[in-house]
Amino acid sequence: MSTQSSPTGPGDGTPQGPAAGPGAGADVHSAGGLTGKRRVAFAAYADEGRLPGVLALLRSLALTNPGVCEDFVVLYDAALPAAAAERVHALHPRAELRAVARGGAGPYPLLGVLGIDDYDTVVAFCAGTVAAGPLGELLTLRTAPAATAAPGALVLQRAQLTPEFRQRVAAAAAQAQATAGPDAGRTTPAEPPTAGSTPGTPPTAAPEASRTAAEPPAAGSATDPGPDPGPGPERTPPAADAAPGSRPAGKAGGAHPDAPALALLKGVLGDALRELAGGALAHLTEPEAPAPSDAETQAAYLKAPGVTHPDLLVHFGTPLAARTGDVDVARRVAAAHIAAGHYQEAVDTMASVTLPLAAAWPHEVYGHALMSVSRYAEARTHLLAATAAAEHAAPAFARLAHIEWVLGDDASAQQYALAGLDADPTHGPSEEMRQRTVPTPAAQESGAPADQVTHVAFYMPHQGNAGDKLLPESVRLAFGSDTGPRRWHSVHAHRLFDEAALTAANSRRALVVGGGGLFIPDTAPNGNSAWQWNVADDTLRRIEVPVIVYAVGFNAFDGQSYRARRFATALRTLVEKSAFFGLRNHGSIEKVRAMLPPHLHDRVRFQPCPTTVTRQITGGWTDPAVREDTVLLNAAYDRAGLRFGHDYGHFLAEMAAAVRAIGARAEVRCVAHAQADERFVFDLRREHGISLPVVPMYDYDNARITDTYARTRLVIGMRGHAGMIPFGCGTPVVSLISHPKMAYFLADIDRPEWGVSVHHPHLGARLAEQALAVLDDHEAAVADVHDRQQLLWKVTQANAADLRQLVGGPLD
């Protein structure tokens, strides 16, 4: 997995403005508290003397670690010039300035970071430190506090910053000051002490950094919607010329103003403080003269080698593109916006430059952005221009096919898909669109419109996500035993719900939307609703039959948010129009209610995912008399940066330990809901020498999916439906929590202990303990699943009474 860091923004789905970020009122105990994902921040202290060094540090971080963008906390006191905020923000998109009392950090301001308590890991940089290489060693440190061997950085874990620890620091500081005098150890920050000078006294314990104090005034501040995967991290070849500000003047030597502070912490922590080599850090022996301008830094970042972080690419590339009109820079910035799900910003970026007709790649990116905001005619123009270049023809044709499919023209979509395959016979998205638009004979038995219900859902192709494949049939079983075309009129949620679709829906008995995590901003982006159902508000209001939203989930990841106010308006329209609005967990209910006016809150009710009650809704279901001696294990890799952050190596190592322990009792198999899930098997074998058989559930039909889950002894799953489907089949589950929805589900059945965060420091041991406990007393574990399932079944039955009235009886 890429080491690219992911934003640690609110992730709660609240519409966010472009300047919003974790320093702007984020709730640090929301999604991150559910998934256990580490919040990591860089930090430094800045006063007037140290400010040039902090600015040099920010430049060096961007240019030597272009794929890393963690929040950056700058502590300051009243001595910091007001204009400093503008200079800091120009070099980092998520920098936050926090005030401390004048001199509040004591003689050695580095310890002001002890007051930062809203991050799990804080990497605090010493005075005059700059980055000279990759900082992966610091970012992946999870448990023990650490310091670089020469004063360069201090890594602190929130778990160590207890009241008792702060008291010990205060006591040690008071004793040292009483011995050496109150002014001992103070140095001029801009001038490190000479070799042989007396270190002096350590500081008193630092007060908590104020997160509400006013900062100095500032002058300025993975899944594609179409057939082709969205753009990944931007890569550039190594630059031949040195980036301005990227090379420090020299290595640290002699005494350092922060050395006594580190010595104090080492004395308090003892052997718990781990010393690191610190080879990726260096010390400025003299100020940068002259310091690179913002324009030079922006240009240097765009030439930085390796992976670039979307936030930094947007931050530095946007003003560069505006100033120069450089089309390639605009393309890269727009692609970064698309990767982050910020589609309108991508459109605006491309609209700000003049595209030559022959610029195929920029035309492809512009077309992608335009189709993502439902400007389909304009998107066609740019995508057709992109097809002129051989290397961009296949993806451009695949997107053109997707547009025609969205608009209901399967014949044109098929032609574009075939053109994509002519350009590249191996192009997967073109082949997917070809298969999706192959003409099929009409169903032999199709009911009259008056006997049907329209069903808007995400219909997966045969070789698609197993959970999403099963969902439409499960929803229909909750309404009755007939799940076929006699009773149901299928409408794909991602296709434009146009006038023809409206007329067809109004001729049916009702319209059902669901289930699944349809409330997510980037799976099928469109400008009509900003969620997966591609319907305009006006069209939605003209539906004349009962609208039933059934078991839909709020599916935003930790660190992912809805920036588009279009979604908030569309959501309100949907709730107002719905005769029944049921969400699949109480976490989704809380999130959605937070985006609605109070008078609509009672409209939102609980309707569990029907896959969780499969045993009840499936006619003729019988529990297996004998189960296979297997444990099925699922890991998910969509939006991997949001799932794992910097902890993927930790996750893989812990899973290797768990697989070894569980494998001594039962055969462990990898169950892949999607083809991408098989990456777990490859990584586990490559890194830890463990081979697992694969269950390719993405190739299974619905009956085989439920049968496989019903016959195993235990499922350990990361995907939502790798927990909900086996649970519904009566099989014990343990959830690998990398998304809030799994914690929501376990809370609804009052079994939070069935989940373990992928970031848990002892994930392997915890997982093995839970799995072996299930295997030791499997009969009791199954009985507990059946008991918990009854809670959800009672809710489903109660709702069914209301739904039968809306659809005119059971659909049998």
Structure description:
- The protein is α/β, with parallel strands linked by helices.
- It folds into three domains: 38-183 and 196-284, Alpha-Beta Complex (Spore Coat Polysaccharide Biosynthesis Protein SpsA, Chain A); 449-616, Rossmann fold (3-Layer(aba) Sandwich), CATH 3.40.50; 619-793, Glycogen Phosphorylase B (Rossmann fold), CATH 3.40.50.
- Helix content is 39%, strand content 13%.
- It contains 29 helices and 23 strands.
- The strands form five sheets. A seven-stranded mixed sheet has the order 3-2-1-4-7-6-9.
- Helix 13 (390-406) packs antiparallel against helix 14, helix 23 (648-663) crosses helix 24 (679-688) and helix 23 (648-663) runs parallel beside helix 28 (763-776).
- The longest helix is centred in the C-terminal third of the chain and has 30 residues, at 778-807.
- Mean pLDDT is 85; it is low at 1-30 and 184-254.
Brief description of this entry?
The chain is of the alpha/beta class and 812 residues long. Helices cover 39% and strands 13% of the residues.
Give the strand order of the largest sheet, numbering strands 1, 2, ... along the chain: 3-2-1-4-7-6-9
Q: Given this structure, which CATH class of the largest domain is correct? A: Alpha Beta
Query: What does the largest sheet look like?
Result: 7 strands, mixed
User: With helices defined by DSSP (H or I, 4 residues minimum), what is the helix count?
Assistant: 29
Decide which structural class fits the backbone.
Answer: alpha/beta
Shape: globular
Quickly count the domains. Answer: 3
CATH architecture of the largest domain: Alpha-Beta Complex
